[in-house]
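Exam revision sheet. Question 4 asks you to relate a sequence to its structure. Input first:
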Amino acid sequence: MRNPVEDFVKKLNSSSNRPHDKLSLRQYAGVSFLYVQMGPSASRRDLESFLQREAECFIRGTEWIYQFAYIRTSAAGLIYRFQLRVPDEKSFCCGNQCVNCILLQK
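Answer key, structure tokens:
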């Protein structure tokens, strides 16, 4: 199964108005990290607004939500943790007659 974060990184790298020179994806223990080398005139704020705008476009029409958080700056550039997640909702009936049972919806 393909990781959707890989598709998101490809989309970011192909964008014409990107504030970064290089962006790569690395995964450690199942967590996705974005390693970003900034352009000469771009700021961290520019990058974060770009990530937010592109992530909102990427998940439009899906149930996914995104989260990204600045981790640190290293010799490789800025490092962000990035996640695409499905909201924490019940998706099956457990048989315990819960108030928020999926069978009671619709």
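Marking note for examiners. The chain has a mean pLDDT of 88.
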